[in-house]
């Protein structure tokens, strides 16, 4: 987490999940394919909104992320929080490996 990016909402989670998406795409084992498939299936409808915060998620979604979405939603923050929770839920349920998110210096987060 970079303290200088504290003005950017969700920057710590964005950085962590971007790295996770890179790891998932570069891995060739069957577990990574299962996780990527589960993410595509569960989040396809709302992928565009999650890609705004986790740009590397578009590498997993492929052509599915080209769907235009209405960005004028009143509950955008709630939707984003829900999508981030679903993302974590899917990667933890779909994997036989534990998912660890180490939150250090949490006082600097939003």
What does this structure look like?
The protein has 110 residues and is an all-alpha fold. Helix content is 53%, strand content 0%. The chain is built from 5 helices and no strands. The protein has helices at residues 11-26, 30-43, 47-51, 57-61, 76-93. Helix 2 (30-43) packs antiparallel against helix 5 (76-93). The longest helix is centred in the last third of the chain and has 18 residues, at 76-93. The chain is globular and about 40 Å long. The mean pLDDT is 80.
Write the layout of secondary structure elements.
Blueprint: H1 11-26, H2 30-43, H3 47-51, H4 57-61, H5 76-93
Helix pairs in contact: 2-5
Which features would summarize this protein structure in a list?
110 residues, mainly alpha, globular
Average predicted confidence as pLDDT: 80
Largest sheet: none
Helix content: 40-55%
Q: What is the N-to-C order of secondary-structure elements (H for helix, E for strand)? A: HHHHH
Number of strands: 0
Concise structural overview:
The protein has 110 residues and is mainly α. 53% of the residues lie in helices and 0% in strands. Helix 2 packs antiparallel against helix 5 (76-93).
């Amino acid at each position: 987490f970079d303290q200088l990016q504290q003005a950017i909402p969700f920057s710590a989670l964005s950085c962590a999940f971007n790295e996770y998406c890179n790891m998932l795409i570069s891995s060739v084992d069957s577990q990574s394919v299962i996780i990527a498939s589960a993410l595509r299936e569960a989040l396809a409808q709302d992928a565009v909104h999650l890609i705004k915060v986790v740009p590397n998620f578009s590498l997993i979604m492929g052509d599915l992320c080209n769907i235009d979405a209405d960005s004028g939603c009143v509950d955008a923050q709630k939707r984003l929080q829900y999508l981030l929770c679903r993302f974590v839920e899917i990667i933890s349920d779909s994997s036989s490996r534990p998912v660890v998110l180490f939150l250090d210096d949490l006082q600097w987060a939003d």
